[in-house]
């Protein structure tokens, strides 16, 4: 298989994970490339007029991994490090995630290489609309449905929906999820990923017989996922002792006052300098002794270099791909650490996105309580299946989750056959 188009550390990591699981599952060599390689990839130039009058050209991407089970589903990220290889890896993981939790989707991912923090609101809107315009041939409620990711939010999704709808000549709320509720978004969607992380942390604590009262948690990445997970875990009685963002972290052994922290972040757009805590680096944060470590930032944070030094009982992967295969090999020799793998741990977001899509197609909307009840039921079912599969086959939770997801896609492709 020629990887030159997607070749990057993160895509090689996703392929390495797949190959290890495929070996365990005895998937025939003839079927592996078809399962692994993306179905479709689009790279586009996105020229926009900046506020100072000059024209700047950004690069944008959208990768659809497979369309075997239904339309593709996946986020759009605006970040300086976005590459087509990163997007392809994230699309592959989204495929296994959707299959694991039983959603009728293939995986997709998209992004624009930019720094959204440096763009004005007007520049961000123009960038979003032009990027959407370039993607229109491969978007649609029955083709590919984007959602928010790193650097994007419900406002960006509203611009995408509006741009697509203008081209269609009528409102098409089902083309995107993670929208404002007023435009067909779902109650509970914004909080779903973080609440899902906290729910699965609670289930892992039940499995390990760890009491929430007095337990401590450390969160890398205090964005939408990390902050909601922190609040939800704190409600269970877990003490949040350290958090970080892209610019640094903070630590308080007695527990952070999350209400005060959230007010501070709303004013300063970051956690650094919060007066009721000590500064800490992201590297130090990952090695801080705690019961629960939540990597909720970017990929490849827990590596072969730091995995042996991590001091926690549970790793709850709020981010996609935060643990490298080299780190997995080390963690496999540390049975005292229980890993909730990313494609299970952060699946609450795509599950709630599925609920939003269903509501949009029906034009019939649910209460937040109904959304959360359905979300936790699906998470519970997926957690139990993964845990039982891991125990039955004496494999890690990551291997169990990946093998369940990959098996379902593999079987679906076999049933549909190869055309022509």
Automatic annotation (TrEMBL):
Important for catalysis, annotated site positions: 149
PROSITE patterns: GLFV_DEHYDROGENASE
Top-level taxon of origin: Bacteria
Entry-linked InterPro entries: Aminoacid_DH-like_N_sf, Glu/Leu/Phe/Val/Trp_DH, Glu/Leu/Phe/Val/Trp_DH_C, Glu/Leu/Phe/Val/Trp_DH_dimer, Glu/Leu/Phe/Val_DH_AS, Glu_DH, NAD(P)-bd_dom_sf, NAD_bind_Glu_DH
Gene Ontology molecular-function annotations: glutamate dehydrogenase (NAD+) activity; nucleotide binding
Residues the entry annotates as binding NAD(+): 193, 224
CDD domains: NAD_bind_1_Glu_DH (cd01076)
Active-site residues annotated for this sequence: 109
Keyword field: NAD, Nucleotide-binding, Oxidoreductase
UniProt domain Glutamate/phenylalanine/leucine/valine/L-tryptophan dehydrogenase C-terminal: residue ranges: 186-417
Keyword NAD annotated: yes
GO BP terms: L-glutamate catabolic process
Protein name: Glutamate dehydrogenase
Organism for this UniProt entry: Brevifollis gellanilyticus
Gene this chain is encoded by: gdh
């Amino acid at each position: 298989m020629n990887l030159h188009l997607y070749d990057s550390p993160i895509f090689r990591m996703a392929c390495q994970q797949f190959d290890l699981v495929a070996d365990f599952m005895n998937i025939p060599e003839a079927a592996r490339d078809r399962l692994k390689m993306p179905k479709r990839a689009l790279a586009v130039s996105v020229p926009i007029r900046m506020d100072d009058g000059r024209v700047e050209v950004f690069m944008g991407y959208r990768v659809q991994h497979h369309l075997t089970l239904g339309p593709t589903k996946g986020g759009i990220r605006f970040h300086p490090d976005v590459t087509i290889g990163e997007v392809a890896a994230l699309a592959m993981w989204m495929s296994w995630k959707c299959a694991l939790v039983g959603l009728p989707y293939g995986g997709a991912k998209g992004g624009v290489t930019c720094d959204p923090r440096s763009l004005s609101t007007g520049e961000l809107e123009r960038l979003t609309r032009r990027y959407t315009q370039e993607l229109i041939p491969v978007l649609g409620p029955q083709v590919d449905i984007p959602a928010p990711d790193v650097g994007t939010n419900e406002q960006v999704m509203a611009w995408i929906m509006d741009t697509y709808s203008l081209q269609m000549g009528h409102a098409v709320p089902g083309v995107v999820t993670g929208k404002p509720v007023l435009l067909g978004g779902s109650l509970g969607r914004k909080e779903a990923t973080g609440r899902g992380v906290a729910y699965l942390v609670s289930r892992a604590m039940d499995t390990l017989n760890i009491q929430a009262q007095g337990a401590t948690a450390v969160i890398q990445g205090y964005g939408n996922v990390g902050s909601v997970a922190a609040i939800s875990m704190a409600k269970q009685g877990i003490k949040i002792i350290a958090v970080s963002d892209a610019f640094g972290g903070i630590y308080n052994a007695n527990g952070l006052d999350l209400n005060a922290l959230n007010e501070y972040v709303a004013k300063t757009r970051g956690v650094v300098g919060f007066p009721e805590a000590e500064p800490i680096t992201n590297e130090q944060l990952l090695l801080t002794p705690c019961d629960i470590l939540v990597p909720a930032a970017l990929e490849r944070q827990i590596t072969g270099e730091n995995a042996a030094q991590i001091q926690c009982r549970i790793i709850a992967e709020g981010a996609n791909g935060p643990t490298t295969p080299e780190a997995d090999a080390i963690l496999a020799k540390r049975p005292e650490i229980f890993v909730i793998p990313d494609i299970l741990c952060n699946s609450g977001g795509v599950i709630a996105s599925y609920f939003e899509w269903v509501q949009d197609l029906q034009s019939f909307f649910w209460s937040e309580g109904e959304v959360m009840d359905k979300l936790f039921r699906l998470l519970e079912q997926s957690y139990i299946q993964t845990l039982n599969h891991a125990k039955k086959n004496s494999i890690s939770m990551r291997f169990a989750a990946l093998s369940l997801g990959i098996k379902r896609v593999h079987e679906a492709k076999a049933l549909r056959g190869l055309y022509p």
